Amino acid sequence: MMIQWIESCSGAKEFITLYTPAGYLQLMIRLDVICQAVWVLKTDDTLSINNNHPVIQRLDLKENAPFAVKLLKQGSQFRQLVWSELCNIPYGTTISYSALAAKIGSSARAVGNACRDNPYPFLIPCHRVVSVSGLGGYCGQTGGDLIHIKAKLLKAEASFNYE
Predict the structure, then answer these.
(1) CA angle centred on 136, ends 132 and 140, rounded to 5°
(2) How far apart (Å, rounded) are the C-alpha atoms in residues 130 and 97?
(3) Nearest-angstrom CA–CA distance, 83 and 72
């Protein structure tokens, strides 16, 4: 995925829900800029899936071709550096918090905090960063639904074959 960082955006907010191998991800979009992504942990009959939205069509998960997505620029310069590095982790692989920290000259805790604050889970693949002794955390949690989502994402990526 190629990210085009957008400094600001305006327009009406749209909430689009995307189905992923790990569950539903809701995107908040203004025009064609994704401003936030959050996992939907509880679903009901009001959940609206719109796979025809142009932004969703660009996120076709079955294609192994580069695609561009516009994301609203957020976070500190350090967090942006970590998020950029997350996008370089190959699909289907993982790296430890400490290895990523060593790569950018930081600490594992600082990398973990940047992963926790990722406003675009799944799109910026913080799920590919793991502890040296297990899964680690996901979206600020070390247990519960979000850890199950991380495990499902990693399992889906590991089993997907582009050949």
Answers:
(1) 150
(2) 6
(3) 13
The sheet with strand 33-40 has its strands ordered as 2-6, 68-72, 33-40, 23-30, 13-20
CA 123 to each of CA 59, 87, 104, 128: distance values in angstroms, whole numbers, following the listed order: 9, 9, 21, 11
Least confident among 13-17, 78-82, 91-95? 13-17
Query: What Cα–Cα distance (Å) separates residue 80 from each residue in 3, 5, 92?
Result: 12, 10, 22
Is 126 one of the catalytic residues? Answer: yes
Global confidence as pTM:
0.88
57 is written with which tokens?
A: 């069509």
- In the DSSP assignment, the letter for residue 90 is P
Q: For residue 25, give the H/E element and its range.
A: strand 23-30
Q: Is 49 helix (H, G, I), strand (E, B) or coil?
A: strand
**Which residue type occupies 155?**
K
Count CA atoms closer than 13 A to 123's CA, side-chain side. 30
- The predicted-structure confidence for 15-66, as pLDDT tens digits, reads as follows 888 888 899 999 999 988 999 999 999 876 666 666 666 676 666 555 555 6
Q: Looking at 9, 87, 115, 126, which residue is catalytic?
A: 126
Select the more confidently predicted residue: 11 or 54. 11
